[in-house]
Structure formats: C-alpha cells, structure tokens
Amino acid sequence: MKKSENSIETSSSRKKTEIQKSIQADDPIIHHEDPDSTSSENTDSFNLPDKISGADWSESEDVTTAAYFKELKITSPAFKNNERIPTNYTCDGINVNPPLEIDNIPKEAVCLAIIVDDPDAYPEFVHWLAWNIPVTHHIKENEIHGMEGINDFNKNKYQGPCPPSETHHYLFKVYALKSLLSLRANIRKPDLEKAMSKHIIGFGQLIGVYKRPDYT
Questions:
Q1: Claim: this prediction has a pTM higher than 0.85
Q2: For position 52, what pLDDT does the model report?
C-alpha cells in the first residue's frame, strides 16, 4: 500500500486548474493500491487522483490514513486513454454509452457505479450516473444493468459529449462498492456521491476527448 503522489495534468494551466478543482476540490483524501498488472495505457496525461469525488472519511481519523481503495483498470475497445471518443458515443452520433472493460475488481465488491462528467465545462457537466450495476468486467455498448440517475441534460440515461467549442475531456469514472445503494432514480451526482461515500473499495477512470465537427 502506498500513497499516490500523482496529480491531474493537462496541456494548459487553465485546464489543469479546472480539472483539479472538479476532481479534487473539497473532496476527502483517499489512497490507493497499485494494481498487480501494469496500466501505463490508462495513465498517459491524467493520473489517478489522490482525492476522488464521492469518497468519505471519519473526522476522527488522520486525513492521511483515512481510507483505502484498490485501483481499477478501465479501458475501452472503442478508444484509448486520452484519445478521441468516436462520434457514435456523442451527440453527433447515435449517442449511446461506449463499451468499457473493468479489471482488478476487488473480490469484496458487491456492485459497481459509474459517473461520466466533463470537467472542462463550467460548471462541470454530468453526462451519466449509474449504480447497483452487478459486478462485471464488461459494460457493453448501449447497455446498462442497474439504476440510472439524472444527468445535466435532465435525462435518466447516458448522453454523450456535446461540447459547445474546443476540445473537452470526459472522465469515465468507475467505482467498486461493498454494498448496494438504496436510491431512487431522481437523484443527481451529489446524491450518488454522498450515498456511496462509505462504500468505495475500488476506483478507476478512463479519459476520452471530443471536439465537435466544424459547421458552416
């Protein structure tokens, strides 16, 4: 077990600041274990943060030893980490969720949760919330088993990248939980984060980027 010293990096200081704020600001510190297998493909220019959104710790505990999670390896057959998300998974295509591969899931995991958001948007924009997903190594395209909450399009489903301009980053964050969550489908991201805060035992993320085609 070791403390992660990585921080989120982007090509510009502005994006670095925005993304660090969205992932790290006001979130409790969580440490992670390195997976047994290497995952350099999953850590090109973004690294797993010390602080993950949704994690919780007791005020009576030392902040540096609050809680531990295992690093999940998240990949996709549709795109590599920090590469362009195919149009099919965006508002310019059929707008369905991409397939995800999840490895290094803790054996204690009871279910999975997924949050997809855009930290380059201001304020941060949520594209997908899902929880109580049965433990699996494969999330298929346009298929989800579990509950889905309300995204920032006010829809209970995945809705892909649709940035107004420039290239935006999209974080596909996967959580392994040690307990099912009793939540209704009308919840939003803060509700999900609060509910799963004491149950996170694994976390990993895949970063995709997207810029809409130029229209004349």
A1: no
A2: 52
